[in-house]
Amino acid sequence: MTTEIGTLLTAMVTPFKAGGAVDYEAAGNLARMLVADGSDGVVVSGTTGESPSLRDAEKIELLRAVKEAIPGKTVVAGTGSNDTHHSVELSELAMKAGADALLAVVPYYNKPPQEGMFQHFKAISEVGPTIMYNIQGRTAVNMTAATTLRCAELPGILGVKEASGDLDQIGLVCAGKPERFKVWSGDDSWTLPVLAVGGHGVICVVSHIAGRSMARLIEAHRKGDNATARDIHGGLLPVIKALMTTAANPVPIKSVLNAMGFNAGPFRLPLVPLTDEQLKSVMKTVAEAGEYITFTRRGVKVA
After folding, report:
1. How many angstroms separate the CA atoms of 124 and 104, rounded?
2. What is the pLDDT of residue 4?
3. Domain range spanning residue 83?
4. Does residue 237 fall inside a structural domain?
5. In CA terms, which of 127, 149, 254, 258 is 20 to 30 Å from 32?
6. pLDDT of residue 298
7. How many beta carbons lie within 10 A of that of residue 154, not counting itself?
8. Is residue 276 part of a domain?
9. CB 41 within 8 A of CB 63
């Protein structure tokens, strides 16, 4: 079983063609760009990848295209839903298509009890190595530290992407977890605080345009270079906040990529682009971040 999949994973947007079809060639180009700029790998078909509007067949073909584009790098497939049976079926397809690991969100909308969450993740983890994803802001329910640690004892559970917004809860998980169990921040702005309480890394959005900077932040913290880690955190914080508050993720980051010259294409409804004024404001914040934005500074080219 894969146990080391990286500290910096980019939750990748899904490029679409003008007519709305998935642009698999552009997805491969984007994945190559991201790993060239510091990411250890990518997550496909997550929230940032507009997973609610992707069909299962599209998710599997996207996984194949990205795996082919970045051989030897980690590709995690988003396979979670609020239907355990469906999640298991999709996870089986993803593992057959070459996924290195699975990312499964706490079931949303139907508000399962903690026991239901445990059984849900247990079933998925029996298919392949699984990262759980706790994000109450999208699911309406929080997976408690106790449930997370209970799941951590399952052999197929690699770790958790934590976006609960509760540093005490995350700290309790880090303090009580088995050594092999990893905690990734699910909020870009919480990367440094989560690392400080024992986290492993981040599953990231801003790394689309600041991958090298985020990789440096993680490495600086690992080496005890707190001044550098704080500097990068502070330099990127306005950008992170703009990407997460101007509109729902992934609208800002995909709009920024388009504006910066990478053709990520349109959105699928019900998502719509930023207004001109919103985009102007976000791009101003990106420009003000200067050297922290490695997409432009490194001059990354795509095929």
Report:
1. 8
2. 83
3. 8-223
4. no
5. 127
6. 46
7. 17
8. no
9. no
Cα distances (angstroms) measured from residue 29 to each of 12, 66, 266: 12, 8, 17
Domain count for the chain:
1
| Predicted model pTM | 0.95
Count of CB atoms situated within 10 Å of the CB of 123: 17
**Comparing C-alpha atoms, which of 289, 287, 257, 288 is closest to residue 273?**
257
In the chain, what's the furthest Cα-to-Cα distance? 49
How far apart are alpha carbons 195 and 220 in whole angstroms?
11
Question: Catalytic residue numbers?
Answer: 133, 161
Q: Does some domain include residue 114?
A: yes
Q: Which amino acid is at 146?
A: A
Per-residue pLDDT of the chain (303 residues; tens, 9 = 90+): 445 899 999 999 999 999 999 999 999 999 999 999 999 999 999 999 999 999 999 999 999 999 999 999 999 999 999 999 999 999 999 999 999 999 999 999 999 999 999 999 999 999 999 999 999 999 999 999 999 999 999 999 999 999 999 999 999 999 999 999 999 999 999 999 999 999 999 999 999 999 999 999 999 999 999 999 999 999 999 999 999 999 999 999 999 999 999 999 999 999 999 999 999 999 999 999 999 999 864 444 433
Quick one: CA torsion of 193, 198, 199, 201, rounded to 10 degrees? Answer: 80
**At 177, which CATH number?**
3.20.20.70
CA 12/CA 43 separation, integer angstroms: 6
248 inside domain = no
